[in-house]
């Protein structure tokens, strides 16, 4: 058993080579149907008596859907994305309910939740696709962030042999991005060992009451460190993450984040905005750590016993769906014929705004001068053409053109002298 807590290992992130993919899924449990929370028709998804388009979600898992159906729908592609060299994230959001816990972590007997299935298939795929010249290490980490006191708890710290017990914190670095520092990354070599650590971390989540579940978030990650020996050593890191999010405080009187506040953070991350609400909070930093480097993100929404919570979740799913549609249209739009100017970025002085204004004023003035010159040239061309036609008519030999004046036979000078 080994643990990795060095900061240098966190610098090997997957390169941002492709456009991030986003999937929206929702799960309906038997309790939701029994209490009339959710019903599915041919064209709509009814949540608390309100109709939502089924086109909002890529997959709607009903009560008869099995775990294998969910694995084949999105989890298989997620694992393949990790083997392709990209980071992937599965974000599950919803209130505390038996349906959500069984989907993610399974029941107490089978333990065949989505997280357990991902670990099993990931470890089996490593053994099947292993290259003799390549060495792959799998390390697991699990932390829990609480909104009440902004605390970060390392759930695998009891298995960390490091005696220093350093404080876990989320660092926002301008060069490397957001990452978790001093977390316990336990090396796992077998499936049973990984499931043992996972079940120990999940027990902290399952024993929480409804209020603690709302204001706490569990982040589980599986990091694959690959090293290939040849003429020179090559390596990198890929990561598969599971973020089990609560839905926040019921109201803002307690000072914590509510569901609309969490939704605004998720929307800002999906839209790739520079300004993110509550940027300095631990919850926002955790979301950024999970989604900033992810190239394949899946949202899995579930529902609980509160009507307003279910409506907020449905509204958030619709907003993310509209944002995704706009981003797809933006990436697929053909470039216009206008050629954009490439302005030099003065990093030292930071006067890019002034440079852009001056450049725009210069270009506008130059355009007006060019238009004026072209207009004058066109006028000159017209006058020149008209004069040339008139000159050609003068050169023509015509009998009836003009009046011929006879010259006097006696010169004028001689006439004056006489």
UniProtKB/TrEMBL annotation:
Residues 15-326 form the Kinesin motor domain. One of its GO terms (cellular component) is cytoskeleton. Keywords: ATP-binding, Cytoplasm, Cytoskeleton, Nucleotide-binding. Its main location: cytoplasm. It is found in: Cytoplasm, Cytoskeleton. One of its GO terms (biological process) is microtubule-based movement. One of its GO terms (molecular function) is microtubule binding. It comes from the Eukaryota. Pfam families: Kinesin. Belongs to the TRAFAC class myosin-kinesin ATPase superfamily. Kinesin family. This is Kinesin motor domain-containing protein.
């Amino acid at each position: 058993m080994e643990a990795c807590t060095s900061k240098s290992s966190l610098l090997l992130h997957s390169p941002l080579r492709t456009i991030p993919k986003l999937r929206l899924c929702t799960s309906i449990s038997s309790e939701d149907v029994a209490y009339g929370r959710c019903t599915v028709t041919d064209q709509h998804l009814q949540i608390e008596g309100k109709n939502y388009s089924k086109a909002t979600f890529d997959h709607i898992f009903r009560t008869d859907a099995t775990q294998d159906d969910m694995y084949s729908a999105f989890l298989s592609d997620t694992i393949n994305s990790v083997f392709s060299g990209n980071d992937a994230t599965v974000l599950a959001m919803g209130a505390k309910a038996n349906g959500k816990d069984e989907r993610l972590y399974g029941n107490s007997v089978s333990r065949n939740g989505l997280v357990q299935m991902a670990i099993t298939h990931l470890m089996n795929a490593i053994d099947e696709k292993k290259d003799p010249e390549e060495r792959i290490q799998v390390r697991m980490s699990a932390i829990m962030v609480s909104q009440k006191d902004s605390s970060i708890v390392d759930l695998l710290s009891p298995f960390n042999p490091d005696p220093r017990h350093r404080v876990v914190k989320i660092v926002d670095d301008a060069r490397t991005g957001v990452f978790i520092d001093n977390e316990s990354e336990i090396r796992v070599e077998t499936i049973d060992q990984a499931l043992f650590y996972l079940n120990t971390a999940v027990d902290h989540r399952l024993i929480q009451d409804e209020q603690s579940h709302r204001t706490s978030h569990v982040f589980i990650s599986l990091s694959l460190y690959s090293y290939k020996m040849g003429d020179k050593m090559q390596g990198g890191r890929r990561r598969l993450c599971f973020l089990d999010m609560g839905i926040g405080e019921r109201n803002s009187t307690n000072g914590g984040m509510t569901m609309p506040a969490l939704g605004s953070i998720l929307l800002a991350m999906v839209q790739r905005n520079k300004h993110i609400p509550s940027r300095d909070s631990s919850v926002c930093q955790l979301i950024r750590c999970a989604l900033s480097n992810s190239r394949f993100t899946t949202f899995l929404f579930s529902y609980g016993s509160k009507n307003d919570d279910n409506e907020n979740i449905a509204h958030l799913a619709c907003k993310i769906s509209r944002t995704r549609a706009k981003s797809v249209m933006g990436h697929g739009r053909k470039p216009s014929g206008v050629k954009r100017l490439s302005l030099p970025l003065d990093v030292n002085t930071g006067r890019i705004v002034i440079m852009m204004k001056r450049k725009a004023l210069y270009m506008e003035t130059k355009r007006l001068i060019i238009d004026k010159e072209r207009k004058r040239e066109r006028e000159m061309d017209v006058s020149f053409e008209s004069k040339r036609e008139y000159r050609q008519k003068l050169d023509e030999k015509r009998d009836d053109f003009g009046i011929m004046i006879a010259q006097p036979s006696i010169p004028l000078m001689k006439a004056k002298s006489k």
